Amino acid sequence: MRGVGLRYRLAKQRIASFKDYALHWLRGALSYEDLWAIEDLSLSIAPGERVAIVGRNGAGKSTLLKVVSGVLKPTRGSLQVGGRVAPILELGTGFDYELTGLENIYLNALLLGRSRREIDAQVGDIVAFSGLGDFIRVPVRNYSSGMLARLGFAIVTAWTPPVLVLDEFLTVGDRAFVERCEERLQRFWQVGTTLLLVSHVPQLVLHNCTRAIWIEGGRLMADGPAAEVLERYDRQATATDVRPA
To answer: At what angle do helices 145-156 and 116-130 cross, to 10 degrees?
Structure first.
């Protein structure tokens, strides 16, 4: 990743309907302001590294994961990812809430690039790992956040991914489920899966990652061993004026 930036264009006017938008457009009265969620980020992550991304809410962490996952296209800069990315982003992303859990297994796995044959071979293991039992045939609109998390993780990790992206994921779900997730993650580390993890929980960062990246206002603040970056972040994140070193 070199010089990556992502810009949102925000309308300055409050437009309540498409009719109001059309009227503003015809009058030439539309105006926008730019919001750079990520600005001039340059990073290199080696295969097999386990990297945490830390920072305050609104710092650009989740946006960065979406760029790496291909959900968002950067406004400028270049990005190259070596291998298929398996992302778990915002809870419920990729699910159709009118479909059953079983139908969503096929939908999500197809979106991840898996073939019908591959899914057929793994669907039993996915259901078993999720622990949903008969609820797998219930529309996911009736699922709790923990059930959604279990199903999402079971689908994404049914195959060993070259790159695994997790956004605040291991904070959802009961203790037994989190332990099963961590056991599976440990197997991934043994075969060289690369991890990008966003978390506000220091223990999760230190347990799963050897390196941490601190970003603030979409800019890189620190990059180094996880314990050192977390210590620096804890010292300075609450300061009124946080500046890059």
So the answer is: 140
How is residue 102 written in tokens? Answer: 């079983």
Fill in the amino acid letter for 61: K
Tokens of 229: 């970056």
Region class of 81: left (phi > 0), else alpha (psi between -120 and 50), else beta: beta
Domains of the chain and CATH, by start: 44-236 (3.40.50.300)
| Rounded Cα gap, residues 189 and 41, in angstroms | 26
Name the residue type at position 2. R
| The model's pTM | 0.79
CB atoms within 10 A of CB 174: 12
pLDDT in tens, the chain (245 residues): 899 999 988 766 676 677 776 766 677 766 677 889 999 999 999 999 999 999 998 899 999 999 998 889 999 999 998 888 888 887 667 799 999 999 999 999 998 889 999 999 999 999 999 999 999 999 999 998 889 888 998 999 999 989 999 887 766 667 788 788 888 888 998 999 999 999 888 988 998 899 999 999 999 999 999 999 999 998 886 665 545 54
Q: Are 155 and 109 in contact (CB under 8 A)?
A: yes
Q: Among residues 172, 1, 181, which one has the least CA distance to residue 92?
A: 172
